[in-house]
Amino acid sequence: NAGVTQTPKFQVLKTGQSMTLQCAQDMNHEYMSWYRQDPGMGLRLIHYSVGAGITDQGEVPNGYNVSRSTTEDFPLRLLSAAPSQTSVYFCASRGPFGRSSYEQYFGPGTRLTVT
Amino acid sequence: AQRVTQPEKLLSVFKGAPVELKCNYSYSGSPELFWYVQYSRQRLQLLLRHISRESIKGFTADLNKGETSFHLKKPFAQEEDSAMYYCALSGRNNDMRFGAGTRLTVKP
Questions:
Q1: Nearest Cα residue in chain A from B10
Q2: Which of chain A's residues have a Cβ under 8 Å away from the Cβ of B9?
């Protein structure tokens, strides 16, 4: 199993540009989520999904969109990038919905810089 | 509201000294609590979870519901323990919330 994969590893955007961060998992996990990691702020939840076709907002959803058309994929879209979105983005997945004690598996991260 | 607080951003100890990383939480219900670790240039990975009551790499953590705490402890720190440590809480919706993290440095 590849686990959780993310592309790209690095990205530089200009203010106002749009892009999609890709995330995929091959563990048949129902639950997937996106976090951003900023110094002194820890990991903050952006959006999450408890299954295909179902998404919900986390702590910091503004400026980001998600969709979940398949169990495997959970892309994160930045519609109009802003410098405040410069961060490291982590995708994660977890086992069946309702099992809150299950471990969450993380991808390697995408380092995004918005100039 | 679901919140995790790690009051120390940085913690530095000498090799062989005891170490305690503090974590407090607020949650109306019975939470599931975790400690995750991120070593340099590696992915975030699970260190331990309260439900397992296990000791991993010499670390333990006890859930204290009265004090709403889940502090991480190790009696004798090693240099390879230097890393970023995150406390996390999972609630009813399965969404996992993290604290701000504590960077532990173990000096030789």
A1: A40
A2: 40
DSSP helix, strand, coil percent of chain B (3-state; round to 5): 5, 50, 45
Which pLDDT score is estimated for B91? Answer: 77
Beta bridge partners of B46: B36
Over pLDDT 70: what percentage of chain B?
98
**Contact at CB, A42 and B100, closer than 8 angstroms:** yes
**CB-CB under 8 Å, B99 with A104:** no
Q: What is the pLDDT of residues A4-21, one digit of tens each?
A: 999 999 999 999 999 999
CA of A80, closest CA in chain B: separation in Å?
A: 26
A85 contact partners, CB below 8 Å, separation of at least 6: A36, A63, A78, A112, A114
Q: Give the mean pLDDT of chain B.
A: 91
Distance from CA of A96 to the nearest CA of B (A): 9
| Whether residue B51 has pLDDT greater than 80 | no
B84's enclosing H/E stretch is strand B83-90
